[in-house]
Amino acid sequence: xxxxxxxxxxxxxxxxxxxxxxxxxxxxxxxxxxxxxxxxxxxxxxxxxxxxxxxxxxxxxxxxxxxxxxxxxxxxxxxxxxxxxxxxxxxxxxxxxxxxxxxxxxxxxxxxxxxxxxxxxxxxxxxxxxxxxxxxxxxxxxxxxxxxxxxxxxxxxxxxxxxxxxxxxxxxxxxxxxxxxxxxxxxxxxxxxxxxxxxxxxxxxxxxxxxxxxxxxxxxxxxxxxxxxxxxxxxxxxxxxxxxxxxxxxxxxxxxxxxxxxxxxxxxxxxxxxxxxxxxxxxxxxxxxxxxxxxxxxxxxxxxxxxxxxxxxxxxxxxxxxxxxxxxxxxxxxxxxxxxxxxxxxxxxxxxxxxxxxxxxxxxxxxxxxxxxxxxxx
Amino acid sequence: xxxxxxxxxxxxxxxxxxxxxxxxxxxxxxxxxxxxxxxxxxxxxxxxxxxxxxxxxxxxxxxxxxxxxxxxxxxxxxxxxxxxxxxxxxxxxxxxxxxxxxxxxxxxxxxxxxxxxxxxxxxxxxxxxxxxxxxxxxxxxxxxxxxxxxxxxxxxxxxxxxxxxxxxxxxxxxxxxxxxxxxxxxxxxxxxxxxxxxxxxxxxxxxxxxxxxxxxxxxxxxxxxxxxxxxxxxxxxxxxxxxxxxxxxxxxxxxxxxxxxxxxxxxxxxxxxxxxxxxxxxxxxxxxxxxxxxxxxxxxxxxxxxxxxxxxxxxxxxxxxxxxxxxxxxxxxxxxxxxxxxxxxxxxxxxxxxxxxxxxxxxxxxxxxxxxxxxxxx
Amino acid sequence: xxxxxxxxxxxxxxxxxxxxxxxxxxxxxxxxxxxxxxxxxxxxxxxxxxxxxxxxxxxxxxxxxxxxxxxxxxxxxxxxxxxxxxxxxxxxxxxxxxxxxxxxxxxxxxxxxxxxxxxxxxxxxxxxxxxxxxxxxxxxxxxxxxxxxxxxxxxxxxxxxxxxxxxxxxxxxxxxxxxxxxxxxxxxxxxxxxxxxxxxxxxxxxxxxxxxxxxxxxxxxxxxxxxxxxxxxxxxxxxxxxxxxxxxxxxxxxxxxxxxxxxxxxxxxxxxxxxxxxxxxxxxxxxxxxxxxxxxxxxxxxxxxxxxxxxxxxxxxxxxxxxxxxxxxxxxxxxxxxxxxxxxxxxxxxxxxxxxxxxxxxxxxxxxxxxxxxxxxxxxxxxxxxxxxxxxxxxxx
Amino acid sequence: xxxxxxxxxxxxxxxxxxxxxxxxxxxxxxxxxxxxxxxxxxxxxxxxxxxxxxxxxxxxxxxxxxxxxxxxxxxxxxxxxxxxxxxxxxxxxxxxxxxxxxxxxxxxxxxxxxxxxxxxxxxxxxxxxxxxxxxxxxxxxxxxxxxxxxxxxxxxxxxxxxxxxxxxxxxxxxxxxxxxxxxxxxxxxxxxxxxxxxxxxxxxxxxxxxxxxxxxxxxxxxxxxxxxxxxxxxxxxxxxxxxxxxxxxxxxxxxxxxxxxxxxxxxxxxxxxxxxxxxxxxxxxxxxxxxxxxxxxxxxxxxxxxxxxxxxxxxxxxxxxxxxxxxxxxxxxxxxxxxxxxxxxxxxxxxxxxxxxxxxxxxxxxxxxxxxxxxxxxxxxxxxxxxxxxxxxxxxx
Lengths: 378, 378, 397, 397
Hints:
heterotetramer; A: alpha+beta; Butyryl-Coa Dehydrogenase, subunit A, domain 1; Butyryl-CoA Dehydrogenase, subunit A, domain 2; Butyryl-CoA Dehydrogenase, subunit A, domain 3; four-stranded mixed sheet; four-stranded antiparallel sheet; 12 helices; 52% helix; globular; C: alpha+beta; 3 domains
C-alpha cells in the first residue's frame, strides 16, 4: 500500500517546475496572450530537450516508456503556470492512440517526431453545436483510390493554429450511428484547409475552426480501425480526461497558494485578512478541494495505467469533481483578492478563465456524473 | 404597493404570542411529549376563546370571515413554539373544503363546532408507501343504501389520535385514476376504526395509522363532488402548503433568534462566539433564509387569498424554499450551540425534528420545484 | 398587502413609457443596444442621453422641482428603475451626481455649493465621480491616506484613489481625504468637491478581468481645493459619506429588477441550448437548478418590496439594504456562472463567436465585481450581523 | 503507487477474518446486530466482547507483544479497522484505554503506572474514560476549571466534566485538571489517573437529541488522587493531552471506512425506495446527488491513503488528521440528512415503524454530534488554517 508519486515522478515535478520557472512561469501565458506566439515553440523545444515529450512513448521510438502516472506531475506543473499549447492533446490523445492503434509506419513517422518536439498534435473533434455524440460527426471522408476527400467543418479545436497534425474523427460510413466514424491523421503540411481563430475569453488557449473543402488525405493516414473510430476515440478521451484533471489540479494548487499568500500579507483593519474566518475558512475549503481533486486524480491515473475495473468510474468522478473544484477555487480566489482580483494585472483571472475553458471540454460535470452512475450499474 | 401585514394581522401576531407564552411557550410541546396530552385540549379551548379557530370561517357560521393572510401570523407563532395539534389541518384543509364544497347541513354541523373549539379535524390521506398520487388511493368506499362501507388503511395521519373528524379520500370508482376518488367526513364518534400510533422521532406531532374494516359512513358525509374529490383535495392542499410555510417561517424565526442569542452570550476563548465570523456569518445566512422564506410565504398567502394567476407557482416555490430553509437553519442552530445543541435539554432538537417532520409532508421540495417548472410552462 | 399601483403611480408609469418610446436612441427598443466601443464616442453618446433625460425631466426624478426634478415618491422612483431595466436603458452617465452628490448637496451643502453645482449635475454639464477607495483602504475604507493639507487659503491634496467609476469622464470629484491623523481613523476625514480639470489630477484606466476600462485609478499630486469646496464640517467627512450613501437606496431597486430580467434571459438560454436534440429546459437537473434560481430571485424581489414598505412606513432606510445588496450580487454572479456551465463546450467563446450572445461571457466576468464593489459580501455580512442582529464586532481595535 | 497488500498483510487480514467468523456474537454475521437496550446488559455484552478480543489478541494490536499486543504495523492497523467496519463489529468498550491511555502510559508513564494499569486495560478488567470538556471549556479546551489541590499527600479534585463517553461504565478516568491558575491558560494543567470507584466521583447520563445516554456529566467533589497518579509532569498536562491525542490516528481510518459503507447503504436505500413505481436510483436528480456523494466519499478514502503514505514515509502524523476528521464528519452528516430527504413522507418514522430501518433516523440524529465532538468543524478549520497553511490565529489574546 503506497499512494504517492514515486521518486522518478517526484523528480519530474521538481524539474518541470524549475524549467517552467526558468522560462518565466506565469510570464509564459502572459506573453503568449500579448501576441508573442513564438514563446510556445520555444518552450516546446525545451520540453523536448528535458525529455517531457517522450514520457509515455515507447522506448523503441525514443521515449521513456512510462505510463499515465508519470505525466501527472508534469501536467500539474503546466497547470500551475497556465501553460499554452497542445501538450495534453499530444501526450494524452495522440501518443496513446498511436501506440495502441498506429501502424508501424505511423508510429515510425510520428512518435520520434513527437519525442523530438518536431510535431505537435491536437484533436479536431467538435462540429455543429459542440456536442460530443456520434450523430454530431458529420464531416465526410469519401474514399477514393488512394485517398479520402474531406468536406465539413470542425470547431473548438484547441491550439489548432500551431498543431502540425490534427486527429480528425470523420464519417466514412453510416449517418448518425457510432458505426462509420473513423479517425484520420491530417498533416497540416499536406492538407489544404482553412483555419480561423475563434475568439475566446481564455486567451492562453487558442481555439480554432477548420474548414475542410475537398481536402485530400492519403489512405495510410487512417488511424485505427475503419468505421470503428468512435471506440478508439473513447479510449483516448479517458487519457485526456486524466491529463486535464492533472492540469486542473496544478491550477488549483497555485490558486490555493495565491489565496493563502494574499491572506497572510494583505492588511485591512490592521489585520492580515487571513485572520478573518470568512477568508481563513474559505482558504481551508479551497485546500480541501485541492486535496480531494488531487487524490481522485492520482487514483484515476493509477486506474488508467493499470486498466483497473473501476477505471471509467474513477476517471468520471475525478473529472467531475476537479472541474467543479477548479471553477470554485478560482472564483473564490478572485473574491479573496477583492478589487485586485478583478484586475487584469493580477493573475487571478488567468486561472478563472482556464477553469472555464476546461470545464466542459469533452463533457460537462453533469455528463461525467451520469457516466459514473451508469458504471455503478444504477 | 404595500407588502406587509395589516394592523389586524399584526394584532393577531402579538396576541397569539402572548397567549402561547401564557400557556408556557415551548413548555407546551415539552409537556405534550412527556405524555401530558391534555395540554393540547386545554390550549385548543384557549384558541377558541381567542377567536383563532374562526379566523377564516364565514361570519354566518360564527367566524371572522378573513382570508389566508390572516392565518399567517397565527401559524407563525405556533411554529415558533412548536405547537402540537391539527390546527393547520383544521383551518387550512377542513375549513376551506367545507366553505367551498360543504352542503348547508355540513357547514351548519361542522363550522360552528370548529369555531367553538369543539371539533378538530385532520386529513387522512396517505396509504401504502406514503406517496401522493391518485393510484395510491386504494381505500374503498362501497356505496350501500344510506351509507358507504369503508375498507382499507390510512397512515401518517397527523394528530389522528385527537381529531374528532377525519377527511378521508376514498375510492368510490375507478382503480388507479384520478376519477373515482371522493372525500368523506368520517366522525370518530360514529365510525368504528382502529387507531394505532406510529412511532415518530418528532414526538410533538403524533402520527397514526387508522384501519377501516367494514366501517360505515353515512352518505351525507360525502364532501364535495362524488368521484371528483381529487381536484377538491388539490384545492385544499394549496391552502395547507401555505399554512405549513407559515408555521415553518415561525420556526425559522425562533431558530435564528436562538442562534443569535447564543452567539452573543456563549463565551469561548474569552469572546462571545458570535464574534467569530464562522458563527457570525452563518447566523447572517440564517437570517437571510428567514427573510426569503417569509417573503415567499407572504406572497404565496397573498396569491392564494387573491387567487392570483401565479398562485400555484408561488406556493410551490415558497414551500420548496421554506422547507429546505427550515431544515438548514435548524441544523445550523444545533451546530452553533455545539455540545449543548446536542442535548435533549436545549430546544434546538425540537425545531430540527419539526423541520424534518414537515419537510416532505404533502410532497418533497423536489416535487414542488417540478410543479413550479410545469407552471412556468417549461 | 396590496401589489397594485395607485392611479397617480400608473399615470407616472405610462408617461415614462411613452417618453422612452420616443426618446430612447434609435433602434434601442428593437434590441439594437450596443454602446460605442470607443471610450470617447461612448462618452459623447452617454452625455447625449443624459441631456435627453434632463430635458424630459427624467434625470433626477426625486429632486425638488425648482432644481429640475419631479419630487417623485419612493414608489415612483421604484417604478422608474423598473421601467429603465425593462427597456435596458443606457446607463446614466452622471449617476454619481444625480443619485448621490446632488441630493447630498441639497441636504447639507452651502448655498454657494448649491448654486455652483446642482444645476450642472442634472443637465449633465458636469459629470461627477466619487473618490473613496484607495490601494490600502478597500474594505477598510476608513483607513484612507490621501491627505489634504491647508497651505494658505488652499487645501493641497496628495494621494491615490482606485476603483473610481466614470473618473475618465468626470469634471468633478466627491473626494474623501484625511485632514487629521491624530485621532481614531474614522475621524479626521474631510469631504471635498474637487475640480478634475486641473493639473494635479490624473486618471488612469484600470484594466479589469473583462478587459473593460470601467474603473480608474486617480492620482492627486498637489491638487488644489478651497474652503468653500468642503462639504459639511472639517474632519466630519465620515459622517458626510454616510449621508451620501443613504441616498443610494434606489440602486437596490435597479439591481433587484435587473435580476428578474437576468433570470428570464437565463431561462431563454436554457430553452435555446440543446443537448441530444432536446432543449436543456427539459433536462430534469437543469429545470431544478432554474426553479431554485427562480425561488431566490422572487425572494429577492419580495424582500425588496417588504423592505420598501418598511421604509415607507417608518420613513427611514434600514440595514436591510445590505441584505438586498449582498443577496442580489451573489445571486447574479451565480446565475451568470450557471449560464457558463450550461453553455457547454463553447462556453468561453465570445464577441462575434459567442454561441448565443457575448453578453453572457462579458457579464459573467463583470459579475465578479458585483460581490466586491460597494462593499464586499463579507463586509455586508458584518454590517447585517452588527447593525441588524446585534452581534459583536469581530475584532477589537 | 501500489494499492495491494503484502503477503504478510494479507495473512493478517485472513487471520482476522477467520477469527471474526468464529468469535463474533451469535448471529452477528447474519445481520442480527442489535446491542441490548438496557445499559447494564449492554455493559455486560460489551465487556464480554472486550474479553474475547483480548483473548484473541485483537484488543490492542499495535501494543507491544509483552503487554498482549501484536506490534501491528500501521497498515495492519488500517486493515483491522477496515475489517471491523466491514462486519459492523460491536464497539470496543475500552477504546479510550486501548487506543489512547494504554499507549500513552507505555510511552511516558512511570514503571509503577505501567504495572498497575496497562494489563488491565487490554483485558478489559478496568474500563477507562477521558475527562476533558467542561461546560465552559468546549471548543476552548484549555479553559478548564476543574481544580486539583494538593493537601498533604493527596490531590483533592473538584469540578465538573461533560461529554464523557463510557463514564458510566468506567473504572478509571484520564483527567485533565487545573493545578495552577497563575499563568497562561495552557499552562497549569495536569493529567491525572483517577479512580472512578470512589465517593467523590458521580456520573450522570446526558440525554441527547437521539435520546441515547452515550455521553455523561461527571462531578468531582473532593475526589482524591495521589502523586503517583500524575502522568508526565505537574502543570504539563496540556502536552500530555497532545501525546494522548497523537495515538488517535487510526480512528480516522475507522471513520473513513465507515463512510464507504454508509454510502453503499445510502445507495441501497435509493434502490429500495420507490416513486411512481420507479426506484429512486433511476431519478436523474437522485443519481446526480448520489454520484456527488460517491466522489466525495472516494476522495476521503484516497485522501486518507495519501495521508497514511505520508505518515509511513515520514514517521509522523501531520495536521492532515484534522482534514480527514472534518471532511468525514461533514460528509457523514450530509449523507444521513439526504437519507431523510429521500425517505419522503415517512422520513420521521422510526423504531418498529421505520419504513426501511430505524438506523437511518437514529444515525441522522446521532450525526449531529460528529461535527461537534472531538473538536468542532470550526475548530478543525482553524487547526488546518494555522498549522497546515500558516494562516494567522484569528484572535489575539
